[in-house]
């Protein structure tokens, strides 16, 4: 398929309204709401062992800079209690752990047990034990009391949540007054001229890398599709406002390939 045809199909899919409240998107497919969690779980169980390698290949290593910037501008302080949702292999949790110090703590939460085990093992191998907790959880129904955390983060995970609004509502609920929520996520590329190049990389190069290095092209096809189904910058900002966050804003990185959304509980 020509590159412009791929781009046209992607734009049409992004603008397509929800047809049935009992279905949701799994990539470009419509699936029953109750089935998405299982399908996403299968994707991340499949890629858990090669997840960091594939992130390096997909982004040419730039994801590491995005994550460092994300944590570096988070405002997290020594002694803070932080919840890192969709914490996966633990790279965000490790960066946060270094900043909260011995008086603080980081809870690494993920719905996928295999990803959680990979993250725990990697952090333990690095000698990071004290001040870290691991909880298998669903971001749509967090198992914590109100006002439990100074900061809640989610990096490259919100787009895989079935009910994103419910997850944002829960993030707001578990924050202390004055606490901050941060979302790092793939977003809508801003320069029009760059979009066909980005689409070609996503839909032609990425699945081939998945097949070559992870033995799994389909999971990386889904990951590319899930980015296109995720709300663009202004839509996600509006969802955070609807969840009760104040002072909501976002910052584009790398021409909008990713964006950092921020909001406070007041």
Structure explained in plain terms:
Helix 1 (3-14) packs across helix 8. The chain contains ten helices and nine strands. The strands form two sheets. Strands 5-4-3-6-7-9-8 form a seven-stranded mixed β-sheet, with helices on both faces. The protein has a two-stranded antiparallel ribbon with strand order 1-2. With 266 residues, the protein is an alpha/beta fold. The chain has two domains: 1-59 and 188-229, no CATH class; 61-187, Vaccinia Virus protein VP39 (Rossmann fold, 3-Layer(aba) Sandwich), CATH 3.40.50.
The run of helices and strands is HEEHHHEHEHEEHEHHHEE
CATH class of the largest domain: Alpha Beta
Q: Assign the CATH superfamily of the largest domain.
A: Vaccinia Virus protein VP39
- Shape category: globular
Largest sheet: 7 strands, mixed
**What low-confidence regions span 5 or more consecutive residues with pLDDT below 50?**
1-19
Helicity, in percent?
40-55%
Helix and strand composition category: alpha/beta
């Amino acid at each position: 398929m020509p590159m412009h045809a791929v781009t046209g199909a992607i734009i049409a899919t992004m603008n397509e309204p929800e047809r049935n409240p009992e279905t949701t998107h799994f990539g470009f497919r419509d699936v029953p709401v109750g089935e998405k969690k299982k399908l996403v779980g299968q994707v991340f169980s499949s890629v858990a062992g090669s997840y960091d390698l594939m992130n390096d290949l997909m982004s040419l290593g730039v994801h590491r800079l995005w994550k460092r910037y994300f944590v570096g501008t988070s405002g997290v302080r020594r002694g803070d209690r932080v919840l890192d949702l969709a914490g996966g292999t633990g790279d965000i949790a490790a960066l946060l752990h270094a900043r909260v110090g011995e008086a603080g703590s980081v809870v690494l939460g993920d719905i996928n047990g295999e990803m959680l085990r990979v993250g725990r093992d990697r952090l333990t191998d690095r000698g990071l034990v004290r001040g870290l907790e691991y909880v298998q959880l669903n971001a749509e129904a967090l198992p914590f009391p109100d006002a439990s955390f100074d900061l809640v983060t989610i990096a490259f995970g919100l787009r895989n949540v079935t009910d994103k609004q419910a997850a944002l509502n829960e993030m707001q609920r578990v924050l202390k007054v004055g606490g901050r929520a941060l979302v790092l996520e793939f977003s809508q590329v801003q320069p029009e001229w760059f979009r066909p190049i980005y689409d070609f990389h996503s839909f032609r190069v990425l699945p081939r890398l998945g097949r070559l290095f992870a033995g799994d092209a389909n999971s990386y096809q889904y990951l590319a599709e899930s980015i296109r189904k995720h709300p663009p910058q202004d839509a996600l900002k509006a969802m955070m406002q609807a969840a009760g966050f104040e002072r909501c804003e976002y910052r584009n990185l790398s021409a909008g390939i990713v964006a950092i959304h921020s909001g406070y509980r007041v």
